[in-house]
Amino acid sequence: MNKQTSYNIYYKVTSETFPMLPSFAGIIPDRAGDTKPQGKAYICTFKDEMPQNIITRVVQFQLNTILLCGQESPTYIRNLRRTLTTDITPNLQIWKEVNNEKCQTYEDCVDAFVIDINEIDKYQGTHPILISGISANNDLDSLYQKYKGRCLGFITNEFGDTE
Length: 163
Hints:
Blueprint: E1 8-14, E2 20-21, E3 31-32, E4 42-46, H1 51-61, E5 65-68, H2 74-87, E6 93-97, H3 103-106, E7 112-116, E8 129-132, H4 140-146, E9 151-156
Parallel strand pairs: 1-4, 1-9, 4-5, 5-6, 6-7, 7-8, 8-9
Antiparallel strand pairs: 2-3
């Protein structure tokens, strides 16, 4: 990958990377462990997770951005935002990974969309975007310049050195 400082590269980690310790009680949510990834700019992803588990991780690990990658509905996201931003994390950013056909459905409840590099040219929305599906072969400088003003950065599953 290219060396560049004007955009961010986020490393996708699943919510399991932020471990939960079981409470062994059905009515009490699990509690967060003590381990948090260090070093690179990680973005914690949640896929069809229960709201109480997301809230617990946001509080315990002081997350200010979460990425939802599952079948979360706009109502689910609005309720999650209301719960978290009212008292817990007022500046929380909620990003949603979607295909272009579903962007309009989520326009009023998310802060940015994560769109695959193969679909990015079709995006017609107004929200900021993050481009996923990048690899070492992509020219990130050119991509960033092409979408400058809307592109917040790139999201990758690769943990290679980008410096």
